[in-house]
Write a structure and sequence with these properties.
The protein is α/β, with parallel strands linked by helices and about 475 residues long. It has 14 helices and 16 strands. It has 3 domains: about 50 residues, no CATH class; about 150 residues, Aspartate Aminotransferase, domain 1, CATH 3.90.1150.10; about 230 residues, Aspartate Aminotransferase, domain 2 (3-Layer(aba) Sandwich), CATH 3.40.640. It is about 35% helix and about 15% strand. A 7-stranded mixed beta sheet has the order 6-12-11-10-9-7-8, with helices on both faces. Strands 13-16-15 form a 3-stranded antiparallel beta sheet, with helices on one face. It has a two-stranded parallel sheet with strand order 1-3. A hairpin with a 2-residue loop joins strand 15 and strand 16. The relative contact order is 0.14. The chain binds pyridoxal-5'-phosphate.
Length: about 475
């Protein structure tokens, strides 16, 4: 595959202490990249030595590593033991990939993750290519295919089981449009803990398609498994279920839920936006029919693109009315009078593919795959334990599950003051957190250091104690 070497690649090499960028004979080096590399003493070329490994980071020791600026005032007396496959030195090395982490504590990953050098480089690669080539659809389509392949790898699917759309809302609308409501099953089941957009699409579609919509009520901040047993029945065509509750991080056992759905003859679609990138997902082993996610949260990507898995055996039985020329067997047959769906999940693709966002999203998901999902999942559980201990030490009203096996990345603190005001004050203190309703969410990613989590919670406590000042 042809690569484009841009200024960003040079910056990336510099940040890693490398003195050479190795590239193939077909690769393109932009003039600006050449000039910048020369000025920094970096060689680029086919004969260059492959990049040397980045220098070892400053020794990391969990609680005390990193900047003093974010040191907790009253550290936890002890941390739980960390047994993750990813060493702390590796985590420190990966932190170099996210420049903003040098200046602030980024704990809004349930909303948007930190910008990485590789996603930035991917965006610039598209821009440089467009600038220099004018039009290069062949290459852009390769990158779109690569993005699908990275998503497929992340969830244990094959690339031809993935379609791309603009958002999870679009994904739900496409799936709703593809179902056949003429049989006995005329019910769609969903839950009160979905991200509201799922409810909105279903409410807007119920009358048009003639299905009955049932919401499973939340019990407190969770939904017990037997509520699925009770509410999904032999009239249910499909159930829309969130993997992790956006408000408090409650993580559902989606494999068990899928089995319950199937035992009643219902299909299941999982919204995994708050989960992917923090927890292991294998759609085949978990018997998931359909799964959707955008990329801006734990997948390091950009808005405007979402990826959807539809099991290949199921896909050909579904006929989306939200469709377009890229959903056809041959988009370039240009037969305006003929509808000829592709014979795989691509039948859900619609119009001109999202090239720019695919470059970025593909790079973000690749990063998640390269870092390793198992290591990230273990790290997230460890950080959750610290967050729960710290919230408890400070007497904060934590509304997240206290069992880390039932918890995603978010630890939510219920507060009486306006949560957006809290978010703004935290930002002034170089902490990025995320407000939702009456909670402030502290959502680390694998790169967050334990003492940064402690610092963030201490600042929340301090702001509450000072009446929001
Ligand atoms: C679980 C979940 N699903 C969906 C969304 C957003 O959906 P969309 O991609 O349609 O904006 C969010 C946004 O925060 C979310 O947390």
């Amino acid at each position: 595959m042809r690569n484009f070497i841009t200024i960003n690649d040079v910056e990336y090499a510099l940040s890693r202490g490398e003195t050479a960028i190795c590239c193939g004979a077909d690769d393109v080096v932009t003039a600006a990249a050449k000039e910048f590399a020369q000025s920094k003493g970096i060689t680029i070329g086919a004969g260059s030595t492959p990049p040397s490994p980045a220098p070892a980071p400053i020794a990391a020791s969990g609680a005390t590593s990193g900047s003093d600026k974010f040191a907790p005032a009253r550290p936890l007396p002890s941390y739980p033991a960390y047994h993750g496959v990813m060493s702390e030195a590796e985590i420190m090395r990966w932190r170099e990939e996210f420049p903003i982490l040098k200046n602030c504590v980024h704990t809004a990953n349930c909303s948007v993750s930190a910008q990485s050098l590789s996603v930035r480089a991917a965006v610039n690669r598209y821009m440089d290519n467009w600038l220099t080539k004018g039009m290069d659809w062949d290459y852009w389509m390769v990158e779109i295919g690569n993005a699908k392949a990275e998503f497929a790898k992340l969830i244990g699917a094959s690339p031809d089981e993935i379609f791309i759309c603009g958002s999870v809302s679009d994904a739900v609308a496409s799936v709703v449009s593809s179902l056949d409501y003429s049989g006995n099953r005329k019910r769609i089941v969903t839950t009160e803990i979905e991200f509201p957009t799922v409810g909105h699409v279903l409410l807007a579609s119920a009358k048009r398609f003639g299905f009955d919509l049932r919401f499973i009520p939340a019990e407190g901040e969770e939904i017990p498994l037997d509520a699925y047993e009770k509410n999904i029945d032999d009239q249910t065509l499909i159930s829309f279920v969130t993997h992790v509750y956006y408000r408090n991080g409650f993580k559902q056992d989606i494999a068990r839920i899928a089995d319950i759905c199937h035992s009643k003859g219902s299909l299941v679609m999982i919204d995994s936006y708050q989960a992917l990138g923090t927890t292991l997902v294998d759609v085949k082993k978990m018997h998931i029919d359909i799964l959707a996610s955008g990329c801006i949260k734990y997948l390091f990507g950009v808005p405007g693109i979402a990826f959807v898995y539809v099991n290949k055996d199921l896909a050909t039985m579904l006929n989306p009315t939200i469709t377009g020329w890229f959903g056809q067997v041959n988009p370039f047959s240009f037969e305006v009078r003929k509808l000829n769906y592709a014979m795989n999940t691509c039948r859900f693709d619609t119009g001109t593919p999202a090239a720019l966002t695919s470059f970025a999203a593909g790079a973000g998901i690749k990063l998640a795959n390269d870092i390793g999902q198992q290591g990230i999942a273990q790290r997230m559980d460890y950080l959750s334990e610290i967050a729960l201990l710290k919230a408890d030490q400070l007497g904060l009203k934590c509304v997240s599950p206290h069992d880390v096996r039932k918890k995603g990345g978010t630890t939510a603190i219920e507060i009486e003051m306006d949560s957006h005001h809290m978010e703004a004050i935290l930002r002034d203190r170089d902490i990025i957190a995320s407000a939702r309703g009456n909670v402030i969410r502290i959502a680390p990613h694998f790169y967050t250091l334990p003492h940064e989590i402690e610092f963030a919670f201490e600042q929340v406590r301090d702001i509450i104690d000072h009446g929001g000042h």
